[in-house]
Specification:
Elements (H helix, E strand, L loop, with lengths): L12 H9 L10 H17 L6 H12 L6 H11 L2 H6 L2 H5 L6 H20 L10 H12 L6 E7 L5 E9 L9 H10 L4 E7 L9 H17 L2 E8 L4 E3 L7
Parallel strand pairs: 3-4
Antiparallel strand pairs: 1-2, 1-3, 4-5
Helix pairs in contact: 3-4, 3-7, 7-8, 9-10
Length: about 250
Amino acid sequence: MTRAPRTLADQPLPYLLHETRNAPSNTGKQPSYIADHRQRLRCRFIEGGAAAMPDYEMLELILFRAIPRRDVKPLARELLDHFGDFNRVITAPAPRLRDIKGIGEAVIVELKIIEAAAQRLARAKVLQRHIVSSWDALLDYCHTTMAHLEMEQFRVLYLDRKNVLIADEAQAKGTVDHVPVYPREVAKRALELNASAIILVHNHPSGDPSPSRSDIDMTRQVAAACDALGLTLHDHLIIGKSRELSFRSEGHL
């Protein structure tokens, strides 16, 4: 029986990296000037950390692993020109990354590892912790996971009776300016998790966290559903690119 050929997506990570290293564009001995440049960047990173390094150099360090023998500075700059900044490159959807010439599966894997690591670090600071005393960490986590998404995403943070975060779930994804939300489903899920309170969070890809009329109406519907079931709606946060908006602080709750 003839087996269908395996696609690149079916291969394990070592295979992807092996294929990238042996791709025609990367064959041959690495020029000494590239090796010297890479070594200088690595030393600067080790000695001074990331604070003094521009975004394109940070991207170069990531690209080194996936593209071992080519000058990756032009590719790093192209990524920044296309997506806008370091964060948007790291969080860019894989299909959009593939549209950039020179970006293969190995590069995408490296970028997604960085994204996942950043989200896991931020999440660890809030999960199973008292939300009120960890509010700044919560905002950092929301910005890390949502501020640079290209589509709206709606998340619900579920808290126990001591206001400790017990679950963080993405309820829905939408378009660039709309995401469907079903208040009854939000309240139902809270009961399933035995939660006592919730915090709503969604992002505005435009970067402006100002609430729309539909945002305000939806929040009131969720608040009504929570009241009927004895749940507390602590807040609704809208995450913009560089700042957030709190419905409670703005008087909408």
